[in-house]
Design goal:
Blueprint: H1 2-27, E1 42-52, E2 55-65, E3 69-72, H2 78-84, H3 88-98, E4 103-112, E5 117-123, E6 127-133, E7 136-145, E8 150-153, E9 158-170, E10 173-174, E11 181-190
């Protein structure tokens, strides 16, 4: 008799557990929060992948996005300097003395409600800075371009985009031979 009562109690507990678990599955439907134009604004921490030919470099960077501008307070110029200055020791010396270079990347945004994203179309300006090599100051002008759109993804509030350093001019003379430097930000999250 005791075995029958214990067995019935276990069966009732098992059916109650299954019933509760099935109810919770019905409640777990994901409802995305719709994106708004202002969602892009904010401070971001990002993984930057820089590539030039078969050389790759990764680092964590920070930038800020406002109305129509993404601002890099410390634009990564390592690959540009190492391209211009062939001697690695001299390039490291230049990088140590160059300081922070600010760059502003203009963009236009377009809301895509169906995919819950904001599409960003970039209009890069030239990047200009000075560096000193062997006691001589050189004016560097880098022409940047963006072939693809960027995206602010509403699902995880991340920003994803990329652009390229298409040409480098040193004191008004185009640097040649030159291999394009690509800057890809596959994921960035708001701070």
């Amino acid at each position: 008799m005791k075995k029958l009562i214990v067995l019935r109690s276990l069966m009732i507990a098992m059916f109650a557990f299954l019933g509760i678990s099935m109810i919770s599955c019905e409640i777990d439907k994901y409802e995305p929060v719709p994106v708004k134009q202002d969602d892009v604004k904010g401070n971001y921490k990002a993984r930057l992948v820089t590539s030039q030919g078969n050389k790759f470099n990764e680092k964590i960077i920070e930038f800020a996005a406002k109305d129509t501008i993404i601002t890099f307070k410390d634009f990564p110029v390592r690959e540009i300097v190492k391209t211009v200055v062939a001697d690695p020791v001299k390039a490291d010396t230049v990088l140590a003395h160059i300081g922070k270079i600010e760059y502003k990347l203009d963009y236009q945004s377009k809301l895509n409600i169906d995919q819950n994203i904001i599409e960003l179309t970039f209009q890069p300006k030239v990047l200009g800075f000075q560096m000193t090599v062997d006691g001589t100051a050189k004016n560097i002008v880098v022409k940047l371009k963006a072939n693809q759109k960027g995206f602010f993804v509403g699902y995880d509030s991340s920003l994803r985009f990329g652009f390229e350093a298409e040409k480098i001019n040193i004191d008004g003379v185009e640097f040649s031979p030159y291999q394009t430097i690509k800057y890809d930000i596959p994921i960035s999250v708001k701070n």
